[in-house]
Write a structure and sequence with these properties.
Layout: E1 22-25, H1 33-36, E2 46-49, E3 52-57, E4 60-66, E5 70-76, H2 83-91, H3 97-107, H4 109-114, H5 129-137, H6 144-158, E6 161-165, E7 168-171, H7 176-179, H8 184-190, H9 196-209, H10 215-218, H11 225-232, H12 240-250, H13 261-271, H14 283-297, H15 301-312, H16 332-335
Length: 352
């Protein structure tokens, strides 16, 4: 998967719909939205304006931005729930990333040299397992723009409508039951999903046939990493890397290490020179790389891998921005970006 591209979302801004921004105290050393939301973890985020991100999760439409000390957000659509708690959970802000960086730098001199201030604040999102799984089934031999387009097609054709913003309607990610319905594979082939259409349909049918239905996938959060990974690989279109992506990004397995060609290059060049002569990423080579990094970086090894992955790619550039209304100056976004909500204190986990 190539994450060097960014998807295009053309929306005419409807300034009348913008609310006042709510805030979370969170310095940039704990999260850099411009990297985290564009680095190929989730495929539903796009920039409305430099530094202002638009995306969907928890069946709501979100706008996010940040300054040096705060993450600011607006929410549209969906049920009335604790949006602050949902955002903290999604961004995993209870994890003290600064402490993790210090630990990794202490334990790994190579990490310390590779990661400068530009790559601080890179954390792993806690995504919905259904969206995460089917999005990464789409990722096989694909780039971020095409994956994003496929995910959008799934949402438009099989997801629940949640909000219209400007001239664009936003949808929640479809349920497993919706993706297991009759005719899905044929429709997705018509939409140019290719062989992935069959993967999506058969995987949805398998999960839907389980006694727990969709809960089968969510219950993997409570399984040990090895068991969850093994069960995922029984699904059509899910190999070791996709299984590890899902374990890391939605099943609460922070030690999962997805190994692709970029991670393989990092490992062979800087950590395991004995693997330089390996021309392909065999299962044995994959496991050797993942085990080495888990032993080196500890419980949150998958997070450390995500940092080096972003550093290796030199941070993907955002090429496409949303079209602003004619005659509207970009500074208008800042003029309306007033903050009135009280600050929320975030309780962070202690890193051992």
């Amino acid at each position: 998967m190539d994450i060097s591209d960014c998807k295009l979302l053309k929306v005419t801004m409807d300034f009348s719909k913008l609310n006042e921004w709510r805030t979370l105290p969170c310095p940039k050393c704990e999260i850099q939205l411009d990297i985290v939301l564009a680095c190929g973890q989730s495929f539903r985020w796009t920039q409305l304006h430099p530094g202002i991100w638009c995306g969907v999760f928890a069946k709501k439409l979100w706008l996010l931005k940040q300054n040096e000390d705060e993450v600011m957000y607006q929410v549209f659509g969906g049920k009335t729930t604790d949006s602050t708690a949902e955002l903290i959970d999604y961004l995993q802000l209870d994890v003290n990333l600064n402490d993790l960086y210090k630990k990794w730098a202490k334990d790994d001199s190579i990490f310390s040299k590779m990661v400068d201030n530009k790559f601080h604040g890179i954390r792993v999102l806690r995504q919905d397992p259904v969206e995460n799984l089917f999005s990464f089934i789409c990722s096989s031999n694909n780039n971020i723009e095409r994956i994003s387009s496929m995910v959008e097609e799934l949402c438009v054709h099989y997801g629940e409508q949640i909000e219209t913003f400007g001239e664009k309607t936003f949808y929640a990610f479809p349920t497993v039951k919706a993706l297991a319905s009759v005719g899905v594979e044929a429709k997705l082939r018509e939409l140019k999903f290719g062989y992935r259409a069959g993967y999506i349909s058969r995987t949805a049918e398998y999960i839907n046939s389980q006694e727990e239905g969709e809960k089968w996938l969510y219950n993997l959060r409570m399984e040990p990493y090895d068991i969850a990974r093994e069960k995922l690989q029984k699904l059509t279109g899910v190999g070791a890397k996709v299984a590890d992506c899902v374990c890391l990004m939605s099943l609460d397995k922070p030690g999962a290490i997805p190994v692709d060609t970029h991670v393989q290059q990092i490992a062979c060049r800087d950590y395991l020179p004995s693997l330089k002569d390996k021309k392909s990423l065999t299962p044995k080579c994959y496991d050797e790389i993942a085990t080495h990094f888990r032993n080196l970086w500890g419980e949150y090894a998958g997070w450390a891998q995500a940092v080096l992955f972003a550093a290796e790619l030199q941070r993907p550039k955002v090429k496409n921005l949303v079209c602003l209304p004619q005659g509207r100056k970009s500074t208008k976004m800042e003029e309306i970006a007033k903050v009135s909500e009280p600050k929320t204190k975030i309780k962070r986990k202690k890193i051992k």
